[in-house]
Task: structure prediction
Amino acid sequence: MSAAIEVSELRRRYGGSDGFEAVRGISFEVARGELFALLGTNGAGKTSSLEVIEGLAPASGGTVRVLGGDPLAERAEIRPQLGIMLQQGGFPSDLTVTEVALMWGGTLTAPRPVPEILEMVRLSQRAAVAVKALSGGERRRLDLAMALMGRPTVLFLDEPTTGLDPESRRNTWRLIREVLADGTTVLLTTHYLDEAQQLADRLAIMHQGEIVAGGTVADVVAGHPSEIRYELPSGGPPPWAPEDSCVVEDGWVITRTRTLQRSLTSLLGWAERTGTELRRLTATSASLETAFLALAADNGAEAATTSQLQEAVR
Amino acid sequence: MIKRLTALGRAEMILLRRNKVLLFNALLVPIGAALLVANLGGDGGLNAGATATVVGLFIATLLLLVVYYNLLSSYVSRRDELVLKRLRTGECRDAEILAGTALPAVTIALGQIVVLAGVGAVVLDLPAPVNPPLLVFGVLAGCVVFTALALLTAPWTRSVEAAQVTSMPIMFACLLGSGALIPLEALPDAVARVGRLLPLTPVVELTRLGWLGSADGSASLGFVGSLQEAAIPAAVALGWVVLGVLAVRRYFSWEPRR
Result:
């Protein structure tokens, strides 16, 4: 069975041949029933890529196949099988939630009943409320409901939990897991790394229009060091530094290691033997966050971009 | 396609019902303008010229207010709320989204024709339409042209409020230069020549031919005669339709300008 989504050397340029190239030859595949996450900061090219894959914009180069077809040229055949949630999209603010659902359902080939879809996103109690009176989180849930209303085979979610409170985020994750369990393929973009870590079967990290890393979370994290940090009392012994790198930054002694348990055991043994107090000791396993930041640094991120990355991973 | 258009049209009709200003414009202004002009003639009944003016003004207000201005407001509002962008992610084709938004205005325009035919016959002694198919064709062509003009004005319109300003050039040019209010023959030759090329002019001529049997208030040419006379304005109107559709494909913007 072919992949649900096949992207090969995709390019997208704005403003003619001399214009800005937002997507620079990315390639990946998404298997049927899989959740694939595209990660990156704002401006990394995620939404620009997604718009082409969804069939909303033409590619400047490369090819995209969704369910075996061209999503732009074969839009009429493919679109009924897709559900799309935009990063920014709206509904008429003077319509109620039910009226929006009736309108949207009326444009679909095989829509879920309105009460069912509102129940799925927990908006039943707000059915008679005008869109303009909904909170930002409720609007995102309404948006998600419309993306799910046509029982899509492939679901595109562009930053689905941006602006949601923690409980709503977890409810959205629950819903995404439910549609995955039904066999739906999901392509998710997010800059919340915990979201990708929670949901993604595989992921790709985009930076300045290119994919700089990809695979499972474990694949991406592998090779990136865990971190031990502590403070030493003034006048104490020099920092312990066995085989791993050890740096001092702003009073913190930081050890980056690929063997966290062994290094930590050695450190604690050394502290015990020398009677050294390790103040504010922390040990953190390698995570998507550390991998993400390291990849950005490796790929020549400017200072502004690095701070943007750090903001994004918080 | 019908199902999708109906769903979008129904939602637009709800929105129109909730906007009192647009609803007033759509339902009362055209027929009110026609009745006002008719009553200016006194109690002696309408002569042929006055009848032509009543029909012309009615069609002008119908297309300029009900179709052009209302739709310009609707398209700008839907664009700014990112509704158009969202609708493009569904199963609707682009043309269906634009047509669905226009459906209530076009339905009201056709309904108003029926109302004026009834009210006009009773209150103003307006004759029954001589060539109803030609009348409907003229109104439909006008609806398409002014829907296209609304779509082409939208990219120049930053907000719904700004529509009051950006719609002015087309509103005034068409109202004053298309023979709807002032006969083209009464205008200087150079102005009249330009006026004949305005998008409303062929529509006014077609509807007068369809309703009264003549475009200038002279004696009715009858069903067949009005058809023969309609060839040139029909060609001009269709030219505007083609031009409008091509321009919309090229210039219409689905998202707010950044």
Q: What stands out?
A: Chain A has two domains: 32-57+68-221, 226-285. Residues 46 and 193 of chain A are 14 Å apart (CA to CA).
